[in-house]
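Troubleshooting log. The previous structure file for this entry was overwritten by mistake, so regenerating from the original sequence record. Sequence copied from the archived sheet and checked twice against the printout by T.R.
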Amino acid sequence: MTGYRNARWRSLLAALLLATTAGAAGCGVPTEDAPRVIEQPVPGRTPSTAPAVAASGPASERLYLVRDGALVAVQRRLPREPDPQHLLADLLAGPTEAEQARGLRSALAGSDVVVSVDVWGVTAYVEIPAAIEGTGRNDDVLAFGQIVCTLTSRAGIERVVFTRRGAAIGVPLPDASLSQDPLRAADYAGLIADA
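Regenerated output below.
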């Protein structure tokens, strides 16, 4: 099914690109006589989609970000309580400008780190793409810790299992071991610092 979706998206993208190119050629888009420099993004960094400012409202969410190699909890006010998918989307968007000014960052590299999250009972099952591989490096430990601590900060979620194609996978812990067991915030407690 995923292969079919990918092929379908590639076909749609190719058709859109062809239509755009044909449209631009017929609309008198000027050609250039000399080459020009096109700015490229810095390798390994994805453009920030972080909100400029935090929202406000009667509900709140707790996200875990990173500062000086430690996990730091931040509270954000929201118009309503986020479901687990929205909670992870806010985490993956990264720190706000104000949070960045306080030295906070994210070890999560972009918004495609998580495919989906489903909650069954008190366990959140987080599906990650095949391209993401936990190596045990400090940033990997912090990245998985951000997800576990953020999800388990929500009422009703006590543990997190990471899966790939529906099967549990091993993720790095602070002691450099890999665990397929359901993870709790306590598993990353040694990395949590005061805000």
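Residues 122 and 156 are 6 Å apart (CA to CA). Archived copy saved in two places this time.
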